[in-house]
Amino acid sequence: MERRTVMRIKLGDYCGVCETLKPKGYHLGEVFICEGCEDKMVRTEPEDSDYEQYVSSLKGIWDGLMK
Ligand SMILES: [Zn+2]
Fold it and tell me: N or C terminus of the chain: which is more exposed, having fewer CB within 10 Å?
C-alpha cells in the first residue's frame, strides 16, 4: 500500500467533501479539502446529523487514496 502524505497549499481547488471551489484548504494526496470542511470534520460529533454525510464523503476519499 502506497502511502502518500503530500500536503501543499494551492490557491483554489474543488473540495472533495463539499465539491465546491474554495480558495483555501489543503491536499490529502490527490484530494483537496477546504478549510471549512476540515473545521467541520474536526468538530462534527457522531450524534450530529452531518456526521453520516462526512463519514461517507471521507470514506470515498480514503478509498480513492488507498487504491
Ligand atoms: Zn469543503
Answer: N
Query: pTM here?
Result: 0.57
Indicate whether 44 belongs to any domain: yes
Would you say residue 6 lies in a domain? no
- Four-residue CA torsion sign, 44, 48, 51, 53: negative
Structural domain containing residue 37: 13-61
Q: Tell me the CA–centroid distance for residue 19 and ligand 1, in Å.
A: 6
Cα(34) to centroid of ligand 1, in Å? 4
Residues 42-61 have pLDDT tens digits of 887 888 887 888 788 888 87
d(CA 32, ligand 1 centre) in Å: 8
Cα(65) to centroid of ligand 1, in Å? Answer: 17
